[in-house]
Amino acid sequence: MPRYKLTVEYDGRPYRGFQAQAGLASVQGAIEKAVKGFCGQDLRLQAAGRTDTGVHAIGQVVHLDLDKAWKADVVRDALNAHLVPEPISILSAEQVEDPRWHARFSAIERRYSYRILCRKAPPALDWGRVWHVKKPLDADAMHAAAQALVGHHDFTTFRDLQCQAKSPMKTLDVARVRREGEEVILEFASRSFLHRQVRSMTGTLAEVGLGRWSAADVAEALAARDRRACGPVAPATGLYLVGVSYEAEPNRAK
Question: Is residue 102 part of a domain?
Fold first, then answer.
């Protein structure tokens, strides 16, 4: 069976997350329905990450096994045709030579970004795609505080109570915060993340940006290994899965 790697972009607002759920709209369900429409095949695709309700992606990666070998461009274009009018786009498709390659288990690194719009006026064009914070944020202070999170740690403080991961131990390779005009952008990279870890870290760092927390407070919260020590959890609206790397040494300058 030919295996295809797809890079996918989607607006997460209409869906109850990426993962297929009976009776609920999902990104996975929409793509699998498009496959059925394209070639009549029922299948279960595999994804690099299962984003939550309302979370977006510009670089999600999935794989699927088709009964017949098709040209990669045909797969991309046919799926996009069957996805109309869903806010989902197959950006690229390629046939994978190694049948052992897996969208989830072969991933070396996942990259997320979080957009915070800092201004009095609410967003119009980006409604549902950013977190609107009316007060100014100190992006430099947030970046400095974020460095306490980099490295191999017990991230229990930033782990959702419903998280099903076997261990709270994770290695955060990148935590960056920068300003772009009216927006503050947070970037995180790791081999894998705990459930709602990025949103939990973002909400805590926003407290630093607002002047309510210090960098030392963030370090103390991490060391507490207690969910109660976490700051407010940022909403799903500003979170994006921006890319998945399968290289031995990911390019973190992207």
Answer: no
